[in-house]
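Support request from a user on the community tier.

User writes: "When I paste my C-alpha cells into the form, the page sometimes reloads and wipes my input. The last time it worked, I copied everything first. Here is what I submitted, just in case something in the input itself triggers the reload:"
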C-alpha cells in the first residue's frame, strides 16, 4: 500500500523533528543533566492520590457527564469566583459555563475547533508553547505570530497591527512557556479592551496559574503574597469575554491524568462540550475525582522552592547572557550569547557534549537564538547543569 498517499496534509504539516531530536540525543547520554522536562518534580499530594484510588475502588470507573462530574464543576466555579470574581458560572441563565476536559491540550484543541473556520486567523505569541501553531494546522486556520522578543511580553501595542477582518482568536499565555513571563495587570486590561473593541475572543491559557512567584504577584499588582491572592487573577470580572483554560496536570504533578477545564461564555463552552461528546467523550473519571481533592492541596511551599531555583538560574547565567526574569512557571529562556556566533541548535549540541539537556529556541519560535531550560529538577542537578552552561557561555 502507498502509505505516503494516506497521510493527510494536516498531519504532514506538523514537524515534530526538532524536539524529537533533542530527546533522541538525550536518550543516548549515560547520566544526563536533564533540564528539558516540562513537569513538576515534587510528589503528587497524598490526598489527590487517595481520592483517585478511592474512586476506582468505589466503582466510579464509567463514563461521566461529558462536561464533567457536577461536584468538580461546582468546585471549579467557586474557585473562580474567589479567584477572579467570576460569578454565576454554574447558574443556567448566566450566559456562562464550565466544562472539564481531557487535559489542557484537549481544552485548547476543542476551543479552537469550536470557534475557528478554515481561513480564520488565530494570533499566538512567539515564542509559544509547541502546540499553538498546530492548533491552526489542525483547524485549517492561520496562526499569526506576535513577535514578543526581547522581553517576551504580549502587549496590545504588539498585537493590534496583526488584527485583520479574519482574526477570531487571541491566545494569551501567562505565566508563559517557554519564558515564564507573567503579564502585568495593565497589559491584561489593555489586551482585553482591544479584544472587546475588535470583537476577537481572548483565550487565556493559564495552565501555570498557581506557579506565579511572590515577587511577580507584587510586581504585577496582583497581590502581595500567595495567601492574599491564591492565583494571578488577571481577567477579573471578564467571564463573558474571556475563555479561560486551566489545568491540574502541572499544578499537582498529575500530567499523565489528562485533566483540564474551560470556563467562560456559555455559547462557546456548550460547543466545546458538544465536540468533546464526539471526540474525547469525557475526562478520565478517576482523575476527575482526584482533581476534586486537588482544591484542598497546598503547593505554596513547592512554588516558593521553584522561586529559589529561578533565582539560582538568574545568578548563574545572568552574568553571561540576557535572561528575562521568569515570574512564574518553571522555565527560563536565556539567549545564546551573540559573541559565541552560534545558533541555539548548535549551542545545545555543545551542551549535550557536557551531558546537559536543554531545548533550542526554534522548537518554540521562528528564531533560533535562545534555549529553554526547565528548573523543575533537584537543586543539585540544576546547579551542575547551570555551571556547565555558564562555562560554555564564558
Ligand atoms: C502553555 C501550555 N499550555 C498547555 C499545555 C498542555 O498541558 P496538558 O498536559 O494539560 O495538556 C502545556 C504543557 O506543557 C503548556 O506548557
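"...and here is what came back when it finally went through:"
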Amino acid at each position: 500500500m502507498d502509505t505516503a498517499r494516506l497521510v493527510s496534509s494536516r498531519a504532514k504539516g506538523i514537524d515534530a523533528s526538532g524536539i524529537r531530536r533533542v530527546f533522541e540525543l538525550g536518550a543516548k547520554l549515560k547520566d544526563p543533566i536533564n533540564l528539558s522536562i516540562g513537569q513538576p518534580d515534587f510528589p503528587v499530594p497524598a490526598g489527590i492520590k487517595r481520592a483517585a484510588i478511592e474512586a476506582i475502588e468505589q466503582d466510579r470507573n464509567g463514563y461521566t457527564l461529558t462536561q464533567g462530574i457536577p461536584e468538580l464543576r461546582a468546585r471549579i466555579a467557586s474557585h473562580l469566583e474567589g479567584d477572579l470574581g467570576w460569578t454565576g458560572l454554574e447558574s443556567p441563565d448566566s450566559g456562562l459555563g464550565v466544562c472539564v476536559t481531557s487535559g489542557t491540550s484537549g481544552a485548547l484543541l476543542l476551543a479552537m475547533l469550536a470557534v475557528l473556520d478554515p481561513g480564520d486567523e488565530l494570533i499566538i505569541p512567539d515564542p509559544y508553547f509547541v502546540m499553538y501553531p498546530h492548533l491552526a494546522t489542525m483547524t485549517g486556520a492561520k496562526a499569526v505570530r506576535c513577535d514578543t522578543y526581547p522581553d517576551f511580553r504580549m502587549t496590545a501595542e504588539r498585537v493590534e497591527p496583526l488584527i485583520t477582518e479574519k482574526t477570531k482568536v487571541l491566545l494569551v499565555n501567562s505565566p508563559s512557556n517557554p519564558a515564564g513571563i507573567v503579564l502585568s495587570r495593565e497589559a491584561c486590561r489593555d489586551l482585553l479592551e482591544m479584544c472587546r473593541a475588535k470583537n476577537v475572543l481572548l483565550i487565556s491559557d493559564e495552565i501555570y496559574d498557581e506557579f506565579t512567584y511572590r515577587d511577580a504577584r507584587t510586581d504585577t499588582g496582583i497581590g502581595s503574597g500567595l495567601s492574599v491572592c491564591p492565583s494571578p487573577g488577571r481577567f477579573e470580572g471578564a467571564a463573558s469575554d474571556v475563555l479561560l483554560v486551566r489545568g491540574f496536570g502541572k499544578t499537582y504533578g498529575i500530567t499523565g491524568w489528562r485533566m483540564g477545564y474551560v470556563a467562560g461564555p456559555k455559547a462557546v463552552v456548550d460547543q466545546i462540550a458538544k465536540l468533546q461528546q464526539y471526540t474525547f467523550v469525557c475526562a478520565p473519571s478517576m482523575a476527575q475525582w482526584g482533581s476534586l481533592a486537588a482544591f484542598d492541596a497546598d503547593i505554596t511551599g513547592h512554588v516558593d522552592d521553584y522561586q529559589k531555583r529561578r533565582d539560582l538560574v538568574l545568578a548563574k547565567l545572568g552574568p553571561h547572557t540576557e535572561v528575562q526574569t521568569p515570574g512564574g512557571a518553571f522555565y527560563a529562556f536565556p539567549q545564546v550569547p551573540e559573541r559565541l556566533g552560534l545558533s541555539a541548535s548548535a549551542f545545545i549540541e555543545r551542551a549535550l557534549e557536557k551531558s546537559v539537556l536543554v531545548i533550542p529556541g526554534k522548537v518554540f519560535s521562528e528564531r533560533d537564538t535562545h534555549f529553554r531550560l526547565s528548573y523543575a529538577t533537584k537543586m543539585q542537578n540544576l546547579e551542575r547543569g547551570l555551571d556547565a552552561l555558564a562555562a560554555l557561555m564564558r
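Agent notes: The reload is a front-end session timeout and is unrelated to the input. The pocket of pyridoxal-5'-phosphate is lined by residues 38, 103-105, 129, 173, 177, 205, 207, 247, 249, 255, 260 (CB under 6 Å). The radius of gyration is 21 Å. Escalated to web team.
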